[in-house]
Structures are given as structure tokens and as C-alpha cells.
Amino acid sequence: LELHIRVWDIDLPDGSHLRNAFTYNEASTRRLYKGKWTKELARRYHDFILDHRLNIDGLYGKEERDVELLRHGASRGMNAFNLFYVGKGADVGVVKSLLQKRMPPLKEAGIDHLAYIYGFDEVNDETFPKIKELFGAVHSLYPHLPRMTTAYDNTFGRTTGLRDYIDIWVPLVPEYNMLEAQRLRAEGKEMWWYICVGPRHPYPNWFVESPAIEARLLMGAMSYKYRVGGVLYFMTNGWLLNNHPITSGPYTDWFPGAGKSREGVYANGDGSLFCAGPEGPVTTIRYENIRDGLEDYEYMFILAETVKAVSARPATIQRAVFLQQARELLTVPDEVVESSSRHTGDPYELYRFRDQVAEAILKGRQLAQ
User: Fold this and answer.
1) pTM of the predicted model, to two decimals?
2) Taking a C-beta distance cutoff of 8 angstroms, is the pair 273, 290 a contact?
3) How far apart are CA 30 and CA 38, in angstroms?
4) For 98-140, what is each residue's pLDDT tens digit?
5) Is 295 buried (19+), middle (13-18) or exposed (0-12) by CB count in 10 A?
6) Cis (ω within 30 of 0) for the bond into 171?
């Protein structure tokens, strides 16, 4: 078999410039291994997550974060982590006490700038007064600690009075509003987006039955096109329907469904992006495409930085032509992503686009000299 391989002279850093909040519940993993669980096995899972350019994070619960693990993650490119969850039943005094206890060690470790606080998961307007009370208390103690929510407010605080209480808005993909996202960023705030058991077709998701390209596009070209601040996902290892790791293959008894809908139908792959194997994590095609999407995003980020470098040089015809072509690529052509519900299903179309971005990076570096 004769292979022709081209290696791009482009180094990708660890992690990603696309921030992400994907819950990894270590207790769920530890439960499967029982007495075989060790610190070494735990680290395999941690590094497995970091190798795929995701953060070791958790959206729910109030458990204290392992500062040394967070420092390790930061050294590998982690770009965000949740301090603890704040819900409508939380007490202001407890929230303040937890903040005062947990923020100083993070500051001492030099990673406090990566922290945010998540709360009020998918709540409606009856909970908005509680958001103001609790997130207001957070801001009074630590004004620079971002407050993030998936609360349902399609005005993003403009008509509900929440504008000054939330720093990172996270709507579902179909509800993402690019114009409002630009306004929020002008105010020093952010808009991310998220998926869960929804949305369904024609929007992207990473159910087992979904085309694998959807996971890659969502984490790469689509997020870049819409200038998304980050991606949130509720669970990576929701394995409640399994009671032991995979012990044989290729056919296994591992159940890919994370739970049932009201109709009694399992959502295959929902909340379960990789699997537990006999010696550690076992990947999936969906999880590899999430990583590849983050690498696509990094290519576009590097090209954008290259455009800035070329723009700073004296104008020439060659540089002007390059800048026009590169900026067209950075809009992400409609042939790749037309909208959040219309995109290519052809992997070779995406490969061609990534090759064009890589070629532009190398050409731009020459012109920036």
C-alpha cells in the first residue's frame, strides 16, 4: 500500500481557545471499577479528557475541586472550570461561605481566572428573583467571577432585569442569537451554546444515530462561524445503566443509552460520550470527532492570528489578495456550514476546507515576515 502523506508545519497547542464545560462525574466512573479504582486509573481518565482538548469539569454539585488536579489541567490547556453549582434552593449565606473558602486557594495557585460559577439550570421566569439574589451576592464578593446559566430568557436579560446578574448566557443551539451575542460581548459578557437530549434533526447532536460529522462541525467550524464563546454539555459519563466496565469486544454488553424519555425510548449516547474499559477509558467515534472539531477550531484561530500579523505589515498586492482570501475562509463558507441547522454531510468537503485553512496559514506566515 503506497501512502502519500503531507504533514502541515503547524503546531497546535494543548487545550482549545473554544471554552467548554463538559461534566465529568468521577463518582460514576469509580462506581464501575469498585475495589480496582486507583489514583493511577483516575489520572488516566483525567489525561484522556485533556488529550481530547476538553476541560475536567463538573456543572452540578458543591464538592470541593481538587486544586492540584486543576493546576495539572491548566498546564495541559484547560481554559475554564466551575467552582460549584448554585440552585434555586441555595442559601445566600452558604454560597458566600463556599466562595470565601474556595477562591483563595485558587488565587494562590494562579488559576482563579479560569473559574466561573454555574447555576439555575434551565429554569423559567419564576426563578428569576432568586437568580438576582444569589448571583448578586456572588458579584458582591467576587466581581470578576463570571456567573453562567442556561436559564430560559430569550431576551438575555434586556426585559427581565437579569442583564446585570449573568455574565455568560448559554442558550440551546437553535436559540443562539448572534446579534445579541455581539451586544453582550460589547458589554464584557459572553454567549455560549449547548445541546442535551435536544435539539433534534436538523440541528446537530451526537447521539449514536447522528451522522458523526455533526459532532465535529459543532465543536469546530460551526462554533467558529457563529463566534460562540464556548460549548456546554451536561454529562460525558452518565453510565447509570451499566454496572461494570467493558470486558470483551468487539461485541459488548455496554449500554449506550443514558436514560429514557417520557415515551420510554432510550436516547443512545445522550450524556455518554466515551466508555469505561478494563484498563481505563475507551473512546468512541463521536468523542474523536469532538476532538477533531476542536482542532479545526484551532486551525481557524491560528489563521485569524496570522491575518492580524499580515495586516500589521506594509500593504502589497500579495498581502491584499491573501487577506481577502483568508477572511473569506474565516467566515466559514456556506458549503461547509450554512446555518446551525444546515451544513455539509460530506467529510471530504470539510477536509478540503481544513486544507485551505492550513495552506492559508503557511502562506500568511511567509507574508508576515
Assistant:
1) 0.96
2) yes
3) 9
4) 999 999 999 999 999 999 999 999 999 999 999 999 999 999 9
5) middle
6) no
